[in-house]
What does this fold into?
Amino acid sequence: MDKVTRLVSEKGIVIFSKSSCCMCYAVIILFKELGVKPLVHEIDEDPEGREIEKALMRLGCNAPVPAVFIGGTLVGSTNEVMSLHLKGSLTPLLQPYKSP
Amino acid sequence: MSSASTQLITSRKMGIYDPFQQVSMWEDPFKGDISPNTGASTILQVDAGLPNKSEFNSHELTGPSRNDEEGNNTADKVRRRLAQNREAARKSRLRKKAYVQQLETSRLKLAQLELELEKARKQGVYVGSALDTSHLGFSGNVNSGIAAFEMEYAHWVEEQNRQIFELRNALQAHVTEIELRMLVESGLNHYHNLFRMKADAAKADVFYLMSGVWRTTTERFFLWIGGFRPSELLNVLRPQLEPLTDQQVLSVCNLRQSSQQAEDALSLGMEKLQQSLAHSIGAESVLAGNYGSQMAAAMEKLEALEGFVNQADHLRQQTLQQMSRILTTHQAARGLLALGEYFHRLRALSSLWAARPREPE
It folds into this structure.
């Protein structure tokens, strides 16, 4: 979907979320704790929210939120983010986007 | 093969099956062998009058394999163990199936009785609280998913004790790397089974899981989103894994820190959930019509809990996996032994605490 593609190329770290989703909140907090400022897009506050949701699910997100994109590529949802972090692979991915 | 392997003892007084009074059908074959400080508290009470069935054959490892026939012995042991595992898993599945069927029958009976009770109550007849429905899950229905979980968990603990015993023996006897690797894989697999069971239980009743009522009192003291904090466990275990290489020390440190960060994020997510739930319920319903939508919003929030419990278990699982990658086979075996013994002692502590002499009033 165009909007999704456009959004994920706008900034290094993009997280699709819903304002009512507490798991999304947890993931966003984690990224902030790791020293980055993700662009958070609340799809329940977007008139095209439904379309975005469908697009995310087509890309493979079961949830569909939170959906995390780094450098324009879909990293995954909570499971993937947590696994990557425990492996030590998340921090290197975030390195280019850290605030000085 | 066991024919009547699932004989359930119903509470004959009431003619009602109460899963929380249920009797253990499996005797722990290693009861006599486990060290004296075992206060192994199982959830189920053992009725002395029951025929005891030993599900596990005791021809497990009792000594080291002989060096000259090492290769063949090891391969045989591997095959035998795999076959035993398959057999145990199959039996477990059959037991579970039979048990659940029995539960369904009892559930129907219980529902009938409840209807009669309601009728009697309405007619002003006093009925005692023997059928206190709060124990039996929502709406007074027997939650068969939870009852099945309790049964499986008790069984899991017994198997855990057996594995600890085996690990300890293997380490003392200096068995081969392959043997040790197998034991480590079994151990990791066993935890994997626990998380699978918990996932099913979370679907059945997430609050039950989160309350920790299925664990002993001391374990409950450490409860964090339905289980233990992985970073805390790493702290406890680390000293027992020495000596570690510098690289290993660094890796374990990083793992602990990552886990801590993930845990903190989940904790904050849970707090937000609590706040928004409180907000949903607390919001003033100016119009009578709001109540319904308020409740609906609150119900949606509650559904998110299952996700949190699953994520917490995911963290626990991943921590175990990562540790098994960082450590050598021997270290991993020691780690699993230490972990198992730690929980075992916590459970024993619970029993001691419950049995402690108290001052007379």
